Amino acid sequence: MDIFITQLSNGLAIGSIYALVALGYTMVYGILRLINFAHGDLFTIGAYFGLTILVSFALQGNVSPLIIPWILIIMAAIGVAIIGFLLERVAYRPLRNANRLAAVVSAFGASIFFANALKLIYSPNRQSYPADIINLPNIPIFGVDIQSKRLIMFGTAVLLMALLYWYINHTRTGTAIRAVAIDQGAAKLMGINVNKIISLVFIIGPALGGAAGVLMGLFYGQIHPEMGFSFGLKAFVAAIIGGIGNIPGAMLGGLLLGVVEAIAGGYVSGSWKDAIAFGALIVILIFRPTGILGERVADKI
Amino acid sequence: MSLLSLQNVIKKFGGLTAVNDVSFTVDEQSVVGLIGPNGAGKTTVFNLITGNYAPLSGTVTFRGQVINGQKPYKIVQQGIARTFQNIRLFQQMSLLENVLAGRHCRMHAGLFASMFCLPWQQREEKSAVERAMQELAFVGLDAGYDNEAGNLSYGNQRLLEIARALATDPKLIILDEPAGGMNDQETAALTELIAAIQKRGITVLLIEHDMNLVMNICQKLVVLEYGAKIAEGTPEEIKSNPKVIEAYLGTSDDE
Amino acid sequence: MIKKTMLALATGVSLAFAFPAFAQDVRIGLMAGLTGPYASEGQDTKRIIELMIEDLNAKGGINGNKVQLVIEDDGSSPGTAATAATRLASTKVPAVIGTYGSAVTEASQDIFDEAGIVQIGTGSTSIRLTEKGYERFFRTAPRDDEQGRVAEESLNKLGFKTVAILHDSTAYAKGLADELKAQIDKNGRVNTVFFDALVPGESDYSVVLTKLKSANPDAIFFTGYYPEVGLLLRQKKEIGLDAPIIGGDASNHVDLIKIAGKDAAKGYRFISPPLPTDLDTPVTKEFLASYKAKYGTYPGSIWSVASGDAFIALVEAIKAKGADSEAIADYLHNDLKDVQGLSGKISFNEKGDRVGDLYRLYEVDGDGNFVLQPE
Amino acid sequence: MEALKQTRHIGFWTGIVFFALMAVLAIALESSSGGNTWLRTLNNIGIFTALALSLNIILGQTGLFNMGHIAFFALGAYVTAVLNSVLGWPIIYTLPFAACITALFAFVVALPVIHLRGDYLLVVTIGISEILRIAFVNDIFGLTQGPNGITGIQRIELFGYRFMSQFAQFYLIWGFVAITACLFYFLEHSRFGRALNYIKYDEVAASGNGVNIVRYKLIAFALGAFWAGMVGTIYAPFIRTISPGLFEFKESVLLFAIVILAGGGNIVGIVLASFLLVGMRDVLTMFGDWSMLLFGLMMVVIMIIRPQGIMKPRRRQYNAGHLVGKFPSGIGKKAGLSAGNQAEVVE
What we know:
Chain A: It is found in: Cell membrane. The complex is a heterotetramer of chains A (301), B (255), C (375) and D (347). With 301 residues, chain A is mainly alpha-helical. Chain A is built from eleven helices and four strands, in the order ααααβββααααβααα. In chain A, strands 1-4 form a two-stranded antiparallel ribbon. A two-stranded antiparallel ribbon of chain A has the order 2-3. In chain A, a hairpin with a 2-residue loop joins strand 2 and strand 3. The radius of gyration of chain A is 19 Å and the shape is globular. Chain C is built from 13 helices and 14 strands. The interface between B and D is large, with 75 and 59 residues.
């Protein structure tokens, strides 16, 4: 039982990262119907930004370890948001009216570009965050010692998701985002600046991805230029499981995927873990063709 | 015997009853109109006949066979063709290829015959093209057979849909608002076309808001309101039916 | 007419693609992972060979002929390796050195064999590479069964009764894990209580570590590569798993300390051929000094040094028999005996495997140094 | 050549000229000293062209977002490898088995998911290909020899001739590409090919005109897989050692990109896009560390320059001009609907 709870916490922790990355996927998809495969690489860029800031400003030792994560998260989020904004301008906006899949191919191109740019800048070798930035005690839950970093990750993810959910549903701009997601043409007629809204989404989504990247580096330690590809794929799967375009769905999908992986890795086999996760995805889609929280869209005939 | 009959058909979407216990029949070689206010469930009735939806209960009988619950492609094979309210042409394909879509269910060439260009497949292809051209000519669009369907005017797109439906060799053709978006001149031509279709021995069932057209060409009308049938009869009977008048004009105290 | 046009076209194109050739130079191929996950190995290898060639040519080359290197990048991946091998084969070099990673090497073996080119693998320890009967394949790396044998020996000597075996599903690590398990089962001195894989390249191994914790072994033997080892050590500490991790020779890389942190890495043990800096023959010392002088650091691991051995063996063969593939292969099999290489004496047996006992046990000290353990 | 009379086949003759030129190019390369490397690049392109043509049936013609096509290729290659290196069958006998097993696999896995819409199907196909790859890594049924993969695959032997050199394999591979292009071209110009397009453009209308959507989608999947399986059979002896690392998701992405870049399922476009992307990937390796960065950049730039693909989707041409005006109209001259708009249609 102890082991089970520990595995559950392992799964929820990595699932929180998936969820944060999935949020970016789902927002972009909701508004452009575009699978932004470069999103995983934005996450990686966030992790590298965090490391660069940490090292080049010599934060460790000079700043309280409780503040460091927040500085890193905010600065990396800003940096990645700028790149996300530029990405949309350069690689996606010219394809706005083209075949949807053309933008997907462009996204893959961008993904390859980012990963290799990181390799050229930081070397293809893996990099690590210092191991001793934050040392927090374990916290007993249900009689099991849970690492407090797991709780921080989970809490940060839930908090960011809740903020985003509130922002989308209870602000003027949020309403505009929802309007653009439903019907760009109509939104334009209502005086909404669609380009501005899309740019905004390409700022929020990447910022969340960048924040997730920093969390990853801080709490798991190692980063490498190609990790965004598999992380991106996982997060995309998470967004699909939850119902792509749906914000709580992305959260749910991410956590669920993390837990499925942890249980599969912990109780079946580490080598089949990913296969089981994908198997779960397929089974979920067979029974819920648009994901767990996705809307069922009937064809209007 | 009637060609098509609906008996106590019910269809629900979630909590909403879209079609509530509707029954009517369509006689062979007649033109029948299905009318009613917007949202009365007319198109849903069509979708129930063509197999796009399956009814919750009740039966749809065509030429003595119960067809409800069958897939659309099977129902086409049995001789019911349709057009769509919001035009559904293959926009990027040529006029001819659109009509060839209608021929699909009467052709046989499969994967192997097609891939290896068997002689009989070639002959079948040739006669299909001829037949498709014939239908294009029937609606007057044969000269532009090679153009892209999406470039046609609205009225001509409706005609092309009719040609495509006719190419399936139907016994019954179902037209969903064929005159929608047409001007007077075009509507007059459509009236003529429907008469010509009837002359070919094909039964016509249509939804239409243009009352002139409906009263002109239909032998029988069925009126729906809120998913239920409120009247059925000849155009003259319907014109004077108080329930129908109320449904269309609303009660006097209802603003 | 058509024939004429075709001929003209053919000549035109062939001119365009022709390579300049220097008849008197001896050309040797090098296939290394200059990019991809093993890039640091590949880059070290390239530096070592380039340095050795520079040296050799300064001393007059082989029998007065200069040595020229033809390099192809295998991208650390089998698919790219096959293309790289074909490129090398088409340059008609008599022999090729390379490469790191058994699966990568394997993807190129058939191609070199078909072209009749001698290949000397460097960081490729998978058993079956030399079990296929290729007459012109050699390697300066030891084999996994040898490593498996030493690993079982060490586990027993260190007094562990139960061991968990973890690999990473790569060709090499799976092979070594299977070999170790076979040795353990054969000798019956140690028990295997866990056998599973992790997915390399991930960032979070807490799931598998938790699972290991519940299996409660005396020691964990991980057969994979250094990046995962580093991460395992780091996260093992966080999760409160006390059993020590022991690794195979793929964890022999200084970056391990960077990833794990000195604290977590302290006490980590692995078996490996000796480190470059633990090689104490004069030849090696001299070489390492000139390497340091040129590049400012020592080679990161033994595998790039093993490519130096391959080069030395090749030079001996060409000196004796000339730059002909068949003659080189024959010489390496039969005539090359105990030539002093960088990592020890070099000889090959009839399969093309290196003869000799190479493996040693290492432990990481508190400062992150790899310390050779006395036998 | 009855087939050529029905319709105007410009593309068909373009193809014949293209393949003839390729044959000459190969002779030229064979006789030049560095040509072997280029032949290998061309052979790589050929393999990918054949694969992209098979994916084109699924993605380009039917509009099913299959981003796991490499799985079918992998399965074909593995079937051939197992039959050849374990059971010792000659490669050529393994061809029908590789093709049929792959097609059957595709059919079975597609069956429960064929109804999924666009992007959902896309992620499921990614999942299927990853599961298959992981199964290969984990030595499923003890057949695939794990991450090492299967080694010692023989070369193809036909009528006593062994296809060993890059030059010989060039004719094998590109011959296969030529046959594939030809057969798929005929298929495209038939009832079957049109049905796939109807499904791509409008499923409801297609089904309303008698197209059995599920059946055609499944056949498209199985046919694409069948062909990818055959390409696998050709690939295994070409590369001699196959391992799961050759069939990663990135290869599926490349194939997907080729078909999208080709533009609307156009066969000529597929060949050009294969040359562009696969050739570029090979050639760019000369830039070392910068190669993949440039490759990614080129992908973005090419898509922005040609968002609709290299080629336009070519509408089929029919020999029907002589039938215009031959048949009666149901609308009298006085109505003027057709007459009036006819002018606008013809322009």
